[in-house]
Amino acid sequence: MPQKLSPISKPSELVASVQEKNLVIVDARAGAGAKDRYAARHLAGALFVDLEKQLANVPADASKGGRHPLPDLMQFAQVLTQLGIGPDTHVVVYDDKNGGNAAARFWWMLKAIGHENVQVLDGGLDAAVNAGFPVSSAEETPSIPEKTYERLRWTLPLSDINEVEKVANDVDYLVIDVRDKDRFDGKVEPIDLIAGHIPGAVNIPFTSNLDANGFYLSPAELKEKYTEALNGRDAQHVIVHCGSGVTACHTLLAMAYAEMEIPKLYVGSWSEWSRTDRPMFTLTKD
């Protein structure tokens, strides 16, 4: 295994590395019936991680942190041990939405605690199956890692609602909303209470990181795309958000794949912002 892994694993690479001793494959699909869908059909050997219960501390009131706040660090350390993940583990994580479900979120969380050997499977579940990776409906059992994570801290940059409010209209900063254009424009809102966006934010849908076949654009294409968007701004002056801090990680992953510095993640995102008295752009008022 190379010293520095690409954050993206091609399906053929996963097929080739299946016998690797320290490999742990994680299925991070989310949404209704995710665990049942995993149980019915998943990549052989893959372990399920639950966005709602293991990758977030879902609050009763989403106005305080959004719909998917980060979990307590001690809780996350326990989750990693349960999945058989330690500091020396090579993790490949996938979902059924080309990384836009929770695979990129889990990648970001591992990177944020300093775990370098983690990749997202390009194209997700179906791409691996098409490449010849076997599927299973068996109950999978994790191995106990030789070393475990105990004391953790988030080392990647984070933003919060107060900073976003302060800088959203500052030309020296860039606030990127990765939701689809109709949600950003306030035409539809399938999840949160109010349709619209944070005034001053720009819309770069995370789906634009992918080609027509659902695979990530090349690092060169992504670098050109985001270098133009940032327009000379330092990564510390860039904040990326979405609905609840999940799909925003898809864009952070894209920038890492392009060998760019990872900007700040605003985890609370629109789900938090839209439940407060902060200014909002909607179709009925600005």
Task: Give a nutshell description of this structure.
By secondary structure, this protein is an alpha/beta fold. The protein has helices at residues 11-16, 34-40, 73-82, 103-112, 124-130, 161-167, 181-184, 219-230, 248-257, 269-273; strands at residues 8-9, 23-27, 42-43, 47-48, 90-94, 118-121, 135-136, 158-159, 174-177, 202-203, 238-241, 264-266.
Describe the protein:
It holds the Pfam family Rhodanese. Keywords: Repeat, Transferase. The protein has 286 residues and is of the alpha/beta class. The chain has two domains: 8-136, 3-Layer(aba) Sandwich (Oxidized Rhodanese, domain 1); 158-273, Oxidized Rhodanese, domain 1 (3-Layer(aba) Sandwich). It is 27% helix and 13% strand. It has a five-stranded parallel beta sheet, with helices on both faces. Helix 4 (103-112) packs across helix 9 (248-257). The longest helix has 12 residues, at 219-230. The radius of gyration is 18 Å and the shape is globular. The termini are far apart. The mean pLDDT is 96.
